[in-house]
Amino acid sequence: MNRLHAPASVEPAVIGFSAKVGLAGLARRLHGQAPDYLAPPELAFWQAVPSAKRRLEYAGGRLAAKLAVHALRRWQGQAPRPLAELPVLPLPGGEPRVRLPDGSEYALSLSHAAGLACAASFLPAWRLGIDLISQGRAPPHDEAWCHSTESRYSVSDRAISWAVKEATVKTLGKGMGPVFREIRCWRDAQHRWVSLPTQLMDLRKRFRYTLFQSSPYFICIASVQMETI
Predict the structure, then answer these.
(1) Which InterPro entries match (predicted)?
(2) What digits encode the pLDDT tens for the residues 36-50?
(3) What span, in angstroms and rounded, lies between the C-alpha atoms of 52 and 113?
(4) Using N-to-C axis directions, what is the helix angle for 52-76 and 40-48, rounded to 10°?
(5) Cα–Cα separations (whole angstroms), residue 130 to 62, 117, 201, 219
(6) The domain containing residue 107 runs over which residues?
(7) pLDDT in tens, 100-152
(8) Count of CB atoms within 10 A of residue 134's CB?
(9) Same structural domain for residues 187 and 214?
(10) Which CATH number covers residue 34?
């Protein structure tokens, strides 16, 4: 479990928590049974998924999300609730969210890669985007998705670039498309830099990026205050 802090440019504060779940271990735990931590609407969705692989990814993503929300609520001093009472349901735009009867609300970002699911839960005053990618994966680098300079990167740097870009567009709520391609990620000997598209350049200094190496994965989390986007 990782605690996520606000950038140094604002008053230091915890804004959320991230969690990850190994899918192989989860599969052994479930033994093909329905996860007991799913709320009824989640369970109905899980049962309707035809692919066993996709059901496991869904179950892992929901477990990671609920663990992250549980940790954030614990930090807030809230009374613990069973995970089945923390329903992760999509907003009309598709963004996952936990909304409780007492008015508590927790925003979420989820990601999957081979064998692992991860999620970040955060306070709605912020936006976070999380992306998980295998370190040895060579993402597509055609002109439909990537900046022209990225084609010469190593496989590892291309993987990091992809994770950073996807975390950024999740934070912006832009989805895959022209903005994704126009984000340029590169590094020098000591630092990694992100260059947003021209129309978003004024946001560049307001973003914070955290990169975890959890072999054989990279996990990138991007964050920005809602009022700045």
Answers:
(1) 4-PPantetheinyl_Trfase_dom_sf (IPR037143)
(2) 999 999 999 999 999
(3) 15
(4) 160
(5) 14, 11, 21, 7
(6) 1-124
(7) 999 899 989 999 887 899 999 988 777 888 998 888 766 666 666 677 777 77
(8) 18
(9) yes
(10) 3.90.470.20
